Recover the amino acids of this structure.
């Protein structure tokens, strides 16, 4: 799941700098724009968005507490992280880890993430040809792979998971049991494994879901509170 300690540390560190250095605070309460074809170090802000143009190289991370991060085509960057905001990476972008606490994450086509893509409350969308080397996870919000590949697990608690256009998950799909206030009265998540898609691991279910598996999909198995016999098989593009 999401490295919330890391994001919390980022938020606390930036805010402490604001309190200690008023001049620094003035600089941090602004949006940052980086043009096309630029090469710069990493950038951080607190109450502002970060926008990076196409074909740029960022030798460092992009961090904000309250703001959206947008990175245009074919740009290289290290970590991309926000606490309260969305993240958009256009086609051909490469990054290390991508994470948010409250906000959606959308990766365009042929994006490469060497680490993980994580969010607590928000939708995750991966475009065609995109590859994430490690885990993709959230607690609340849909996870959608459209012809993308995930090298390890997909994990959620209350989110729907949809694989389409030949998407591949090389690990497991985990639907975890809600705990505490996040109790079992929530709606059942919907898991759809579309035509030509592959889950090379197992669909591990700690709670009941609506499970749909295409006749042409490949799934290593279903374990937990449900089995493969509980899945609804379908032959069209969608159930």
């Amino acid at each position: 799941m999401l490295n919330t300690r890391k994001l919390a540390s980022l938020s606390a560190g930036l805010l402490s700098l604001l309190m200690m250095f008023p001049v620094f605070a003035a600089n941090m309460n602004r949006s940052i724009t980086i043009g096309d074809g630029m090469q710069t170090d990493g950038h951080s802000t607190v109450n502002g968005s970060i926008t990076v143009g196409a074909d740029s190289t960022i030798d460092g991370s992009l961090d904000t507490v309250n703001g959206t991060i947008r990175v245009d085509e074919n740009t290289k960057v290290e970590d991309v992280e926000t606490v309260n905001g969305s993240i958009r990476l256009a086609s051909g972008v490469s990054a290390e880890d991508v994470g948010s606490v409250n906000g959606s994450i959308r990766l365009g086509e042929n994006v490469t993430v060497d680490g993980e893509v994580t969010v607590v409350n928000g939708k995750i969308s991966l475009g065609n040809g995109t590859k994430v080397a490690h885990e993709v996870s959230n607690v609340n919000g849909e996870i959608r792979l459209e012809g993308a590949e995930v090298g390890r697990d997909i994990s959620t608690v209350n989110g729907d998971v949809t694989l389409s256009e030949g998407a591949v998950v090389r690990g497991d799909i985990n639907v975890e049991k809600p705990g505490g206030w996040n109790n079992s009265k929530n709606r059942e998540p919907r898991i759809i494994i579309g035509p030509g898609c592959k889950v090379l691991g197992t669909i591990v279910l700690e709670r009941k879901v609506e499970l749909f598996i295409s006749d042409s999909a490949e799934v290593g198995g279903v374990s937990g509170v449900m089995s493969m016999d509980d899945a609804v098989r379908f032959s069209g593009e969608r159930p």
Confidence is low (pLDDT under 50) at residues 17-26. The chain has two helices and 28 strands. The helical segments are 4-20, 22-28. Residues 4-234 form one domain.
